[in-house]
Write a structure and sequence with these properties.
- This protein is mostly helical and 271 residues long.
- It has one domain.
- Helix content is 39%, strand content 4%.
- The chain is built from 10 helices and 4 strands; from the N terminus they run αααββααααββααα.
- It has a two-stranded antiparallel sheet.
- α1 runs parallel beside α4.
- It is elongated, with a radius of gyration of 38 Å.
């Protein structure tokens, strides 16, 4: 057990922060205005006056009024205009920045290559402990606390910021973020050497693996090696890295994490 722990809460943050929202573009509708056609008016003919009864000088002959030529307006058809294209959705990093802008949680996230970090972390925790430099979140502050070969109950306080982060982002917003950018998560999963399969299946399998973590009585006994701590119970020491992390964050923290994981799993499976 390493002195600087990764923290299952940090891992769960990665699990729930992962997001497929496609903008459906409406095909532009063609629109045409019928041309306005003005019919040619009838000619106005002047009537000749009747011959006078008495010989009087004839009135001057007035030329007939000329009808002005009819000018027909040209028939115009408004050319079809394509519908404006919607703006592309913001990138994953941009969405993270918007969600956590101004909050105290932004420093917990490693935004550079977050998706690649997340996918590698999820894939590795059932078999091996991922290097801390590959985590999508920063490790918990402080050092692992042990008193008289037992995990100190105060150690659980180091994970409280991550529990607060889960509450801040919420289940629905975490799922939406994951779905929006799922193609990138799938691509990162393929780059790990999986030409087939779906990352979402792997994510659900990892959640199931964590939920199978056995219960243990606290405080948990440990012993120190040269640079790490190990569980004295061989059954606990034989657990996967992810399950070991879930055990040592404290019973209260673990309960909250498991509730959140079950909610996330239900949404992922329903999709």
């Amino acid at each position: 057990m390493k002195t600087v722990v990764l923290g299952i809460t940090a891992l769960v943050v990665a699990l729930v922060l992962a997001v497929v929202l496609y903008d459906q573009l409406k095909s532009p509708s063609e629109r045409g205005d019928e041309g306005v056609h003005t019919a040619t008016p009838q000619e106005i003919r002047s009537e000749s006056e009747a011959e006078p009864r008495y010989p009087v000088p004839p009135p001057p002959v007035q030329p007939p009024a000329k009808t002005p030529p009819t000018v027909e307006p040209p028939i115009t058809v408004e050319s079809a205009k394509p519908a404006p294209q919607p703006e592309p959705p913001p990138s994953f990093t941009e969405q993270l920045s918007r969600i956590f802008s101004g909050s105290r949680f932004i420093d917990l996230l490693r935004q550079d290559d977050f998706i690649q970090r997340f996918v590698a972390t999820v894939d590795s925790i059932p078999e091996q402990q991922p290097p801390s430099r590959y985590l999508p979140v920063t490790p918990p502050a402080g050092t692992f606390l042990v008193s008289r070969d037992r995990i100190n109950p105060e150690n659980a306080r180091r994970y409280l910021p991550y529990l607060d982060l889960l509450e801040f982002i919420g289940r629905d917003r975490a799922i939406d973020l994951y779905l929006t950018h799922y193609p990138q998560f799938q691509s990162a999963y393929r780059q790990l050497g999986y030409p087939r399969g779906h990352f979402n299946d792997r994510l659900v399998a990892v959640i199931d693996h964590l939920l199978l973590t056995p219960r243990s009585n606290e405080p948990i006994a440990v012993h120190k090696t040269v640079i790490t701590y190990r569980y004295q119970d061989p059954n606990l020491e034989a657990l996967s890295p992810g399950q070991k992390l879930l055990i040592r964050i404290g019973a209260d923290n673990r309960q909250g994490i498991e509730v959140f994981l079950r909610q996330i799993r239900a949404r992922l499976v329903a999709l």
